[in-house]
Design a protein that fits this description.
Structural class: mainly alpha
Number of strands: 2
Radius of gyration: 28 Å
Helix content: 55-70%
Oligomer: single chain
């Protein structure tokens, strides 16, 4: 299978062998041989074909419609096929189609397939975890600065920027402890070896 029409034509060229009268002709499935599946019922009847459709045509104008048809069709698939097919389809769609599908998900659309519901749930879970981590980092960075300021130490802009830019929770923990004992805010980094 080749998702590029030119490569498919090149791969399908007959190959002459050293044996008289023996020519090998590879069987190649290119985009022209794969239908554009945008109908949910057709996708449900042949989920593998809609996956091939996404792979062959997912960078074109029909990408969004192919993706929507796939989401509507995966309800009857087992978990393993749902995950593998979903990954193939999503990785085959162009960025605009992926953005459109995300907008559909955010608009309150109630997905019918377990695949789509689980995909959305995983995305929400990852987003929440990222938010928690960002909040934790921000809180620890603010704690470093608060300890220094509570001790009456001047906090130069470069120290403030470095502390606020840190994404290393262990480093921020060390800085919180050292902020309680340094005599100058700039010593915070020298003391920790950072």
């Amino acid at each position: 299978m080749a998702i590029d029409a030119e490569i498919a034509r090149w791969c399908a060229r007959p190959i002459d062998t050293d044996h008289p009268g023996l020519t090998l002709t590879p069987l190649v499935l290119g985009p022209e041989g794969v239908p554009v599946v945008t109908d949910a019922a057709q996708a449900a009847a042949a989920p593998e074909v809609v996956v091939l459709s996404a792979m062959a045509h997912g960078q074109g104008e029909a990408a969004e419609a192919i993706g929507v048809a796939f989401l509507a069709a995966v309800a009857g698939l087992d978990d393993e096929r749902r995950a593998v097919y979903g990954d193939l389809v999503l990785s085959s769609l162009n960025a605009a189609a992926r953005r459109t599908l995300e907008a559909i998900m955010k608009s309150g659309y109630e997905f019918q397939s377990e695949f789509a519901r689980s995909y959305v749930a995983k995305g929400e879970e990852k987003g929440m975890e990222k938010g928690r981590q960002a909040g934790l980092r921000e809180g620890k960075a603010q704690a470093v600065l608060a300890v220094l300021e509570a001790r009456g130490l001047e906090v130069p802009a470069e120290v403030r920027e470095r502390v606020l830019a840190s994404t290393d929770l262990a480093e921020l923990d060390r800085w919180i402890r050292h902020a309680a004992s340094v005599s100058d805010a700039r010593e915070l980094f020298a003391t920790t070896g950072s």
